[in-house]
Amino acid sequence: MNKRAPIFNQAGLFYLMGVLGVVFMWPACTKKYDQINTPRNTIATIGQSQLPFLYAQAQAIAIPWSGNYQGAQNQYADQYAQYFAVTATYFPSDRLVIVPYDLNTLFDPMYSVFVPQLQTIFAETDPGSAEYALADILWVVGFHRLTDYFGPVPYSQAGLPAKSVPYDAQDKIYDDFFKRLTTAVAVLNNKQAETPFGSFDAVYSGNVPMWIKFANSLRLRLALRISKVDPVRAKAEAEAAVAAGVLAVSPDDDAYVHRSGTGSDVNGLSLMSDWNEFRMSASMESVLKGYDDPRMPVYFLPADETGTYEGMRNGLTPAQLTDDLNKNEANSHVGARWSSTSFGGVTTYLSTPQILMCSAESYFLRAEGALLNWNMGGTAKELYEQGITNSMIQYGITDQAAIDNYLNTTSLPIAPQDYLNSPPVTDVPVKFDAGDAGVQLKQIILQKWLSLFPDGAEAWADYRRSRAIPFYPVANSDNPDLDDPSVQWIRRATYLVSERLNNTAAVENAEALLGGPDKITTPLWWDKN
Amino acid sequence: MSCNFNPLNRGQLIFFLFSLQAVLIVFPATTFAETPSTNKPANYSAVAISIDVKGRITDQQGQALEGITVSVKGSARATSTNADGIFVLNRVDENATLVVTGVSIYSIEIPVNRRVQIDVVVQTRSAEQTEVVVTALGITRRSKTLVYATQTVKPSELTEVRDANNVLNSFQGKIANATISQGSGGVGSGARIVMRGNRSIQGSSNALIVVDGVPFNNSTTSSAGSDFGSIQSSDGASNINPDDIASVTVLRGASAAALYGSQAGNGVIIITTKKGIKDKVSVTLNSGVVTESPFALPDFQNSYGQGNSGILDASSGESWGEKLNGQSYVNYLGKQSVYSAEPDNVRDFFRKGLSLNNSLAISGGTEKAQTYFSYTNNVMQGIIPANNLTRHTVNLRVSNQITSRLSTDVKITYINQIIRNRPRTGEENAPVLDIYQIPRNVSLNDAKLYDTIDNIGLPRPVSFPSTLNSIYQNPYWMINRTSINEGRDRLIGFLSAKYKLTDWLNITARANLDRTRTNVQNSMSEGTKIFTKAGFGGEYIEQNVVLTDQWYDAILQGNNTITKDVKVNYNVGFIFQDRKFDARSISAGGLNIPNNFSLSFAQSAIPSADFTQVQTQSGFAQVNLSYKDAVFIDGSVRNDWDSRLPGSHSYLYSSLGLSVVLSDLTKLPAAVSFLKTSINYAEVGNGGQFGLLNSVYAYESGGTGAGYLSRSATLPIAGLKPEIVKNFEVGAEARFIDDRIGFTATYYNSNSFNQLLLVSLPVGTGYVNQYINAGNIQNRGFELVVTGSPLRTTNFNWDLSLNFALNRNKVVALSEDVKVFYLGGSRAATPKVEEGKQYGDLSSLTWQKDTKGNYVVDADGKPLLTTEEEYLGNFNPKETIGFTNTFTYKKASLRILLDGRIGGTIVSGTEMNLAFSGITKATENYREGNWSLGGVDADGAAVNKTITSQDFWQVASGKRAGAGSFFAYDATSFRVREVSLGYALIEKNTSFIKTLRLSLVARNLLWLYRGSSQMDIPGLGKRKMWFDPDMSLGNGNYQGIEYGTMPSTRSFGLNLQAIF
Predict the structure, then answer these.
(1) Any bridge partners for residue A37, and if so which?
(2) Given an 8 Å threshold on Cβ–Cβ distance, is B708 in contact with A321?
(3) Which end of chain A has the smaller Cβ count within 10 Å, N or C?
(4) Considering only CA atoms, which of B241, B342, B324, B219 is closest in space to residue B288?
(5) With contact defined as beta carbons under 8 Å apart, do A472 and A425 qualify?
(6) pLDDT higher than threshold 70 for residue B125
(7) CB count in 10 Å sphere of residue A24
(8) Is the confidence at residue B194, as pLDDT, over 80?
(9) pLDDT score at B849
(10) Could you say which of B609, B706, B715 has the minimum Cβ distance to residue A41?
(11) Which DSSP state fits A112?
(12) pLDDT at residue B423 above 60?
């Protein structure tokens, strides 16, 4: 550069100042930024027309679905209820080990998927509306299953932003259940002609009279659940429920969550049956075979090797599982409606509806109530036999002669001739005992267990509450908190590792509410055995 | 500029691309028109005879040197060498003297002596002194004016010993303080490059890659976030063609990167691609072939076969059976067979990888127009059978000097890449973990019978002994009956124009477009575990992802001489950037015509769409003041407006630095040829993530109604703040004894604030997690690069380059409420970020010890595990070292790169998983029992019980999850990373072929040292690390756990380069 030239010539200076001005007074065009930053494939605000979608979501997740089913139910409740035994050597859950994070698939969706949708419905609808009432009933469906696994769980403060969410005592939770069900039925009684949520309701398509019966039946179920811990309230709730009308006619009244069979909207038991990791339990074999139960070919498939129905004991060790008698091929897989064609099942197995509650159960609940001298609108025997009959009809067994034959059978459960040479699991026949209330209770609970299949969650709760089925002790316990399975049994699931990490103080307080250490042997509030 | 400046819509994009092409088509026509004749008759004069002189300038290694000035002494005549080192000077006095000068070499004078061909070998200054470097936004700066550390990598080091998967892998060992992890997705897999430690918890710690001045979209659409695994897709960097690279500058610190804004806090790799060179038409052909084989496989036991508890069971996937003694038995296929070991049934599963690289580059031009054209073809076959890649890269660049004031530069690059049969990574039904599960007595020939055709003509999986029925499958089924194919078209183009406003001020405007369309087709025959359902005809998923990056900038550049000693140089500009991600995916939901993989046969197609867009606008200014060309003050300021942020969307950050070249300022002892110190401070901001400000409801189809809506389980962050990295750096650069030896030393301290963290919430709140802005993550460290030429003789030269770095990380603060953050779900070990600790600490369940340090066992003598996770180590290396030695003898050269890492813990989930099933070598002893662990009970009393190997390993591992401490390794390792032996077969400027160079290359040749397992197990001791710590499950922040990662490979290759 020529030394005598000015440092900045005029034109250059003009440009420079101009650009500097633009840069530092940049009129940033941010008008559209909020729009740009909004995801287009989601809904930002919920209006009335979106509420059915939320309800459908809450309903779909209220009982474990799809990929959650194995961790949330099959490896735990279904085995504790001795419907199935594990054949896979790598799963210790049948030996009463609770694998960290398995039960997150039960617990987490309840709060992250179930609660938010229902709470949005509660916020966006009138408490006097049918929609609000249906959401209330569903709330109880979901939460009673959860609290019956663990005992105290986050409840009254659930769904509120906080650093820690307290757990509530189970008696408080149950109290709220009864209130919600009673209120919901009162509301629905005035809305009988409406069809809340319409086709989005995958259970009754918005049929209000059906929902009233369902809510009453659920109230009856919960009343029996507290029959030992609070007999007075149990009686009052049960009698009120029966008087208001419960599920009575199978299959019309039976409540199922229907699954479309596509994507993840599938029956979870069916989905996991493909994985070939469980088989019929010896308890099931002993009873079904002993009674020559017509439901046996519905519930199970014949074993590949023998063509007969075979089960195995719960809690076998990996070494025991290598024995030929304990192989998948030597035992019965779950029935055709839950099994794919590769096991001899049906092509529609993934869309098999999932049982919520059926008429048979309400009869067995009433039968048990009758034994307690509650006014259940019938004698224990009548209701017991109605329960069996409805269960048969539910599974397509409509031949009255066959049903009558079954009702009068005096055959007893047999020894399953399994790997451990087990004796018969119990000694009661189907034919209702003439006078011994103890035997009658066993019969009612046993038949209820058969009718609840494959809903292990309810069956396990029933077992713990009643202790009326002498299940086989698990063959081995690998859980150090339960060292003698002959006198101890699993009474609850322990709290989650994730809750101990993220909600530490609340879990510690929960142990006080539980009334015992956070172990599988600590009984729940309603478990008085 | 008005608010109507919107990014291009689709129609405009097409127009943009067409105009790019038009420019490319029109200008090349003029490119070669004015090629000067170099053989004009000499103009004889009476006094002196003039001749035309040609020549070639090379360095000691025979590498051609570009841009070297050759002038005639005592006259103003000068020229400079082209890319091949060639210069031409016409009509030179036959007795004149030529002066060869250049910033990277020592000047030399050569008498012409009536020669017409003068080839000159010059002494280059050491590598670190390649004085001109390309810095932010493509601005070229003299390295001595910089106030921060830079490092350059020679393109030849990337092209000779290449890792054809991803050019990033070739940087391994060559950049100080860079940790490079190779992705696990087979050929063309994404890779991870982290400089100066991890600093981002939720976002990326990956260095920013800049190509020709514009940030390069290096996103990865799918990577494993947990050890369950996933599909590891290609990243953007795998599309960079090393043959087109002209220079690489690495800016390690944030200071260097202040002008790039977002993401530059992780350091920047600046790649400049080749341009045409005037006066010379040259053609370069490069052809290479590389073969690969697995370098690190698990150690297997070969003494016991299928079964459990010592009992032979041919249907079991586990290898806890009888001793393999050649017994005859009925195998799982029902065939009479011999029960003996198949020691190579894993190694033989892998095939020989092969990659071919062929490229052609043509470059040429005139004073007014230069063109560079290249075509590269890559064909690779991976070590997993059927995993192949084909890549075509076409590149055309035209530079024009239109008037004396206006010049333009236009480039278009088209990449077409097809990857077939990409293997899944991680645990779930990935071929690598599937083959590792093979029982020790099952032969590959039997395993190859993976399917039978059923009565309706469909393939059905043959029952295969599995260690986990629901997840693992015969790997041959995965390879042959499933496929993940990826096709990618990528078009990158820019138009830039530079106008000289005055002799001290110019303006450059640039428009850059980068558009990648990736199509992934995922087919699974019916019978594929996890991913298909029986009776649904198989599954097919098709995904289309379109990434569109637009970048527009205008930069005013000026320089003025204020006084004789004080000069100023400045850049002012603005940038508009828009990045769109548009993905559509359709799952067939079963196929009506089984195993026919097209959406036409979809049973119940489930579509989904995902779209994100981020727009930023930035204004910046940067000033460099110099005094006596020896003291430099550098400052920058930048403001960003970012669509991801709430409210004003605006934030500002700046940098300031000083450097002093002492050797130019004062007289130093003769031995010191160069001495510079620098100091600087810089901040870099990052706008966060798309769409975090509000709660949203996601839709899913299904149910009896019209589908489901569910609220996002992540609590939104309405007051999102930008992340800020604050970086302080001091450095010194010195060279001695005529630059025979030199070093660059840098100390840095960087703190990352306002990290965007996704932290867990108690799920009872209705939310699984929430975003918070919090934290202060500190990385402090030291980097040393030493370069030298210990020997320099006429025929023999020895050059070395050593880089050493240490990084110390500290999580100074997270937040009030959150003291620990987990980097990903895990079952072997948990990588986390915990306040007061280091980023990437690993913890796992471990073996209980009593207060005296004795191992605690139960009443049967089996190990008792802790109920809480305990600290294992940190996944980051403490120090990294790379050491390159280059020996040149006449026309031969040998380059050896040794590198290594010191420290760091990596947990082998693979070994944990396999140990449960009695497959690994460590499970071989004590099969029959008699293993006394010498443990004590809870009260400290000795327990004199013995156990079996199965007892032990099934406590340590629960198969898919377990106590990671039993499988944790010290990842310290050193290896011979690269060896390249080159020989110049032809090196004559006069022949038709100017250069013909042959190189023999090898990568991952051998281990020099490998760390051992951390736990000293009584009766077993420690085990040598079997895996390669550089291989990672994915290229995200989830690191430190090896779980079904691809084995790294050892490769040998041959490379031939011809220049015409």
Answers:
(1) none
(2) no
(3) N
(4) B241
(5) yes
(6) no
(7) 13
(8) no
(9) 93
(10) B609
(11) I
(12) yes
Which residue in B316, B765, B916, B917 has the most chain A C-beta atoms within 10 A of its own C-beta, making it the best mutation to test that interface? Answer: B765
**Which chain A residue's Cα is nearest to B320?**
A319
Cis peptide before A209 (omega within 30 of 0): no
**Contact between B102 and B68 (Cβ < 8 Å):** yes
B70 and B55 Cβ atoms separated by less than 8 Å: yes
Q: Would the pLDDT of A508 be above 90?
A: yes
Cβ–Cβ below 8 Å for A15 and B556:
yes
Q: What is the ipTM of this complex?
A: 0.90
Residue B42 has pLDDT above 50, yes or no: no
Question: Alpha helices, DSSP H only, in B484-576?
Answer: none
- Mean pLDDT for B436-453 is 94
- For B688-816, strand residue ranges (E) read 697-700, 708-711, 714-715, 723-736, 741-760, 769-792, 796-813
B103, HSE (Cβ side, Cα atoms, 13 Å)? 13
CB of B967 closer than 8 Å to CB of B953: no
Q: Which pLDDT band holds residue B37 (cuts at 50, 70, 90)?
A: very low
Contact (CB<8Å) B760/A502: yes
Burial of residue B525 (CB within 10 Å: 0-12, 13-18, 19+) is: buried
What does the pLDDT read at residue B822? 78
Contact criterion met (CB below 8 Å) for B973 and B901: yes
What is the pLDDT, as a whole number, of residue B16? 56
Angular region, A166: left φ>0, alpha ψ -120 to 50, beta rest: beta
Rounded to the nearest 10 degrees, the angle between the axes of helix A380-394 and helix A437-452 is: 20
pLDDT tens profile A161-216 = 888 999 999 999 999 999 999 999 999 999 999 999 999 999 999 999 999 999 99
Facing residue for B643 by CB, picked from A27, A37, A205 = A37
Per-residue pLDDT, B695 = 87
What are B381's two structure tokens? 């076959």
C-beta neighbour count of B172 within 10 angstroms? 24
Q: How far apart are CA A306 and CA A303, in angstroms?
A: 6
- The mean per-residue pLDDT over the stretch A465-485 comes to 93
**Chain-chain contact of A88 with B505 (C-beta, under 8 angstroms):** no
Residue B405 and residue B499 in contact, taking contact as beta carbons nearer than 8 Å: yes
A57 chain-B contacts, CB cut-off 8 A: 700, 708-710
Residue B295 three-state SS: coil
- How far is it, in rounded angstroms, from Cα B912 to Cα B167? 32
Length of chain B: 1060
Test B713 with A40 for CB contact under 8 angstroms. Answer: no
- The alpha carbon of residue B636 and the mean position of all alpha carbons in its chain are separated, in whole angstroms, by 29
CB–CB of A263 and B587 under 8 A?
A: yes
Q: Is B823 or A2 the better-scoring residue by pLDDT? A: B823
Contacts of residue B334, defined as CB under 8 A and 6 or more positions apart, other chains included, come to none
Range B847-877 burial, b when 16+ CB lie within 10 A, else e: bbeeeeebbbbbeebbbbbeeebeebbbbbb
CB-nearest to A12 from B502, B527, B702 is B502
Closest to A263 (Cβ–Cβ): which among B470, B554, B702?
B702
**Which among B233, B236, B240, B226 has a CA at the least distance from the CA of B263?**
B236
Question: Which of B385, B588, B355 minimizes the C-alpha distance to B483?
Answer: B385
Write down the pLDDT at residue B749: 92
Both structure tokens of B949? 């190997």
Report if pTM > 0.95: no
Q: Which residue carries 């839709």 as its tokens?
A: B699
For the segment A460-478, the average pLDDT, to the nearest whole number, is 94
Helices (H) and strands (E) in chain B, counts: 10, 56
Q: Residues near B137 by Cβ (< 8 Å), separated by ≥ 6?
A: B213, B259, B260, B553, B555, B571, B573
pLDDT tens profile A99-146: 878 899 999 999 999 999 999 999 999 999 999 999 999 999 999 999
Position B931 scores a pLDDT of 94
Amino acid at B141: R
